[in-house]
Structure to design on (442 residues):
């Protein structure tokens, strides 16, 4: 069983236990549980705080390549990092997500990194043998994520749209705070690989993308700070406004 | 019962864990040290907010460039040689006395690498990611950026592969400065929209 499938079962069970909608650690927009003081802005902040962060940055990008994954699968792996670990720091979750991608593709055996870490400390720990790789083989329409789409766009600038409110895919780029909300198309963006399916290697399914503007009151209620939030949303997230 | 957790114990030191991961991939020839070092060096030295600052300073001093930049961000930015991962389609947002743009990625930490480098810690912080879409004025005020009631605030949540660069307002008192001197004033936080650029 892939680590991916286990994670999905865990999420579902957690949601059932809590008797509500799935709350996903990464989907932070408007989530008051994360509200708190802002960190200071340090213009002199180094790119990496520590050499292991730099190494992790490079290893995660390379792990994505070695695992035959893609940007969306990488983000999905980040989202499957257990909550406490996800919140323990940016490069800590990158480290975990690199491992998840390598487990999913059979490059690394479960427990391999931990066993190696103990050996590096001089402990006599048995290491699991390397498994048979089973890298994903999703056909790609080229480098990057911009694609040409033959069908004409379903929406035009000025159209009123409503975002979908049903259960999203395990990986989606429609933030929870913008589900089931009414907005206006303000720009057409280049068509792109659909993250919801590419993340699970079931196809690129490129779609038109629209910049949608939501009035703050539509998102947060009548006493919201005045203003707007715009979000770039894929065509299948949208319906003509009801 | 089998532990569903198959990744390494998060209590291990991340440095040790990264070293273990690296050694496993190195010994099987799946990665090489030179590539690891090149990735690190690129983002430590060649790619960073000094790139975006050059774009902004050129837009402030060259009206034709500014028009091209606002019309087709990717092409105008590529004129200065800046392109690459996390910059596939660039859109430039112009801050004016009446409209203030601010950029976030609530779902991860999407950021325009070719012009700003890797994101700073405040951009990745859960407090910023959660709050700025709901209370942008409060967030900006907490960082010392007061916006008048007549200023329209537009928050942009980077949810697709479009990446945003904010073109801040040129500060007063900089009329005699060269493009290079102006670039020295432009900060990373102003190009995300959380602060203004201040004069010398």
């Amino acid at each position: 069983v892939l680590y991916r499938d286990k994670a999905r079962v865990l999420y579902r069970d957690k949601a059932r236990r809590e008797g509500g909608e799935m709350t996903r650690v990464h989907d932070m927009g408007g989530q008051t549980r994360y509200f708190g003081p802002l960190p200071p802005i340090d213009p002199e902040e180094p790119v990496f705080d520590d050499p292991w962060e730099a190494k992790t940055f490079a290893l995660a990008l390379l792990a994505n390549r070695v695992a035959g994954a893609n940007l969306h699968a990488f983000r999905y792996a980040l989202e499957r990092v257990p909550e406490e670990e996800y919140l323990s720091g940016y490069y800590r979750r990158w480290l975990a997500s690199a491992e998840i991608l390598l487990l999913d593709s059979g490059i690394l055996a479960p427990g391999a990194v931990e066993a190696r870490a103990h050996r590096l400390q001089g402990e006599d720990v048995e290491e699991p043998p390397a498994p048979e790789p089973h890298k994903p083989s999703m056909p790609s329409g080229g480098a990057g994520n911009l694609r040409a789409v033959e069908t004409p766009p379903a929406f035009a600038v000025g159209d009123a749209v409503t975002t979908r409110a049903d259960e999203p895919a395990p990986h989606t780029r429609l933030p929870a705070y913008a589900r089931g909300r009414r907005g206006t198309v303000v720009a057409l963006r280049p068509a792109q690989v659909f993250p919801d399916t590419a993340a699970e290697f079931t196809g690129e399914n490129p779609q038109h993308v629209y910049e949608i503007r939501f009035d703050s009151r539509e998102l947060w209620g009548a006493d919201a700070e005045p203003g707007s939030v715009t979000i770039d949303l894929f065509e299948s997230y949208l319906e003509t406004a009801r | 019962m089998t532990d569903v957790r198959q990744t390494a114990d998060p209590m291990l030191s991340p440095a040790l864990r990264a070293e273990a991961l690296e050694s496993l991939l190195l010994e099987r020839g799946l990665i090489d040290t030179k590539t690891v070092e090149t990735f690190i060096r690129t983002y430590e030295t060649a790619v960073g907010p000094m790139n975006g600052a050059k774009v902004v300073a050129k837009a402030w001093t060259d009206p034709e460039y500014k028009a091209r930049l606002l019309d087709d961000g990717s092409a105008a930015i590529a004129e200065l040689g800046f392109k690459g991962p996390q910059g596939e389609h660039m859109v430039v947002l112009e801050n004016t006395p009446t409209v203030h743009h601010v950029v976030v990625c609530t779902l991860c930490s999407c950021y325009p690498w070719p012009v700003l480098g890797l994101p700073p810690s405040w951009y990745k912080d859960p407090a910023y990611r959660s709050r700025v879409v709901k209370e942008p004025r409060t967030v900006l005020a907490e960082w010392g950026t007061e916006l008048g009631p007549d200023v329209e605030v537009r928050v942009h949540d980077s949810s697709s592969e479009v990446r945003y660069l904010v073109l801040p307002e040129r500060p007063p008192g900089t009329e005699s400065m060269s493009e290079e001197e102006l670039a020295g004033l432009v900060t990373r936080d102003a190009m995300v929209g959380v602060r203004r650029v201040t004069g010398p």
In short: Chain A touches chain B through 96 residues (CB under 8 Å). DSSP finds eight helices and five strands in chain A. The two ends of chain A are 42 Å apart (CA to CA).
